[in-house]
Fold this protein.
Amino acid sequence: MLWKHIATSIRSSPVFVFLIVFGAVFDLMFRYLSSLSYSFLIDKALIPQDPKALSIIIGALLGLGTLNVAAGISGDYATSRLSAKLLFDYRLQLFRHMQLQTQRFYQQFKTGDLMTRYADDIPAIEAAIIQTFSSALLAVSSVIIGVVILLSMEWKLALVVLAGSALLFLPFKLLKSRLQSLNEAYYTQLDLFNSSIDENIKAFKVVRVFNLRESMLAKVEVILRCMLSIGVHRGFVGSNLNRLPVLGISILTAVVLAYGSYLTFEGRLTIGEFIAFNSVFVLVGHSMFGVAAVLPTFLAARTSLQRLHQAMEWMPEVDERGVLELPPVRSEIALRDITFAYVPGEPVLRHLNLDIPIGRYTSIVGPSGSGKSTVLQLLMRFADPDGGAVLYDGHDAREVKFASLLGQTGVVFQDSILLHATIRDNIRIGKPDASEAEIEEAARAAGVHEAIAGFRDGYDTAVHNHGDSLSGGQRQRIALARALLRDPNLLFLDEATSALDPDTERAVNETIVSLKGTRSIISVTHRLSYAAMSDHIIVMAQGEIAESGTHEQLMERGGLYRQMWEKQQGFILDKDGVSAHVQVHRLRGLPFFSGIEQEALEQMAGLFVVERFEAGIPVVEQGNSGDKFYLIARGKVDVYKAAAAGDRHKVAVLSDGDHFGEIALMHHVPRTATIVTATPCLLLSLSYDHFHPLMEKFPSIREELEVTIKVRMKRREA
């Protein structure tokens, strides 16, 4: 495989390759002529004491040396150019390939994996290719030419050299498998190390606030110690591949000197011929050692090439080769008989049929795992359906030009990433040729112009660390401004405000609602208080449409939407989202509190304590003793269960209004799952110690809970 890349390099850069080869050939010629000159120098000039012959030989060597330097300089320049070009080409090819990929690619290849390929694997491949031209080619050619010369000078002695050369390559044959396996193990650990560093940088606030520095340090130290151990073995084996051939050369040199001296004593070789033979042999031995020394580089490149091909051979899941120009979408977006699965055999959408009218504000809601976000992924062609079609006014999205679809859309994500640039440049991403007036108009429409104008540098304010230098509301409004700058016919919102504090969320949603009637808005959200503001609501469950209509229509039907609505009601949050409390009627809506008297519920509501968590923080750990019951006032958590093998699998997602841990109010039994926050969360907790005195005072509480716990215990046993 590596030879294929070398051949490609020859075809892509013939001039550079020619200059490298020319410099190598001239250097080779100069070395052997210099070695052979000893025979003439001794036998024709020094022993006869002929000054004229001496001057001719010295002059010829000086002339050849000058030409060799000139040829070497051109070869060195060509080597530098080819080296830089190879790095440029490989890195650009990988980057271009990455740009075509979707979510699954980035789930398979983490940030650390990809950075290792850029920083280590590609340079290893480049080094092997360059050494092929600059060292290996010269060394192999030198061996061939040198052996021919030695055979012509004294064939018996040359045969000894050929027989003994096997000593130089025996270590490679014995150690190559071991070195390759060590290379693979080392790069695996290097991927883990780079991923850990990336994680530590991105989550530095969480690491600092929750005092995770020691645990993160311990994790990195384990990886580094593993790399240390592998690195020692890898370096030692690699050194042996270079050291053992030196022993072979030493043994072979001793044999040549002994046998050559014997031939000189016998008169079969002159002193000059023997010195010339030995000089040529030294060159041949040095070249053989050069070939052996390059072999570890080739082994490293072989491993790196395999790793690079793992990424390069990952085929893009979205084919962007559509040829039709998509006209402005004016009627509807339709999903017809859509089937889609992230994991084969586990469909998220099942024969879904959905119509989204153009010119209206449509919200897609549903429980976690219902497939609502997947619908938005398909609409934006972050993925293509396994079956069925996404139609824009009857045009299959796969058949239209990808750019013509993107040109009509704008999108705001839950965690909108801003680039390392000025605020102006971040907004201008939506329309690179936008004028200053257009940028300000978009910022005004998004409600962020006044905030930007209040910065010392205004629109020239630099954005750092993906936008962490701005507030959450400012970041989301700038993301909305760059979407609006495109004047999109279709505006997609993917949980665009769910991570903001209540006051900021309310303000951003008011801005979004003000855009109704000016363009089509399609919003995926789990927060129904804002979905209620839309013209049309689509409710999804288990990959299918459960119901649809306006907020009023859905509430009257009393179906899934109403259940979800009532679950999210009954929490009063302050405008900054720092504090909250639960209302009595919300507690009565919980099945295990439904039969409890009003006074007990009123006292219970006052016992809940506010707990705030950043994203990615464990709230409870499986196996730990439980002592709290939790209500999710705001946010999302992931529920994980550990398998027998120790692997952890996500089994559910809980969000606003959900609860967990009610068994802990009665018994200190081990937690049956691990709960980790997926977004910043505001939780209300009720502890065992606070709850028990209330239960003693109101026996009805115990009765209701015991019934619930018995049912839960039976489920666990089943």
Observations:
- The longest helix spans residues 213-265.
- The domain at 332-557 is CATH 3.40.50.300 (Rossmann fold).
- The mean pLDDT is 82.
- The two ends are 55 Å apart (CA to CA).
